[in-house]
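Example 3.2
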Amino acid sequence: MAGKSNKPKRGKGKSPQKKVKKVVKDVDILSPDAMLNANYICHNVPACLEFRGFPWPGSPKKKGKRRK
């Protein structure tokens, strides 16, 4: 029993690889494509600003979906 150890043997796994960071592009929210998209998804100005990340001051907070 001199050659046996109590530690379990591990197989050779993948070597850790460096994660590549994604490059974030600057998006123009006033471009024609963005305005066309806003025309389809927004019903009014506060909704458009809300979707673009500028919430209306004093607006009620959205509630999440309730789990059943």
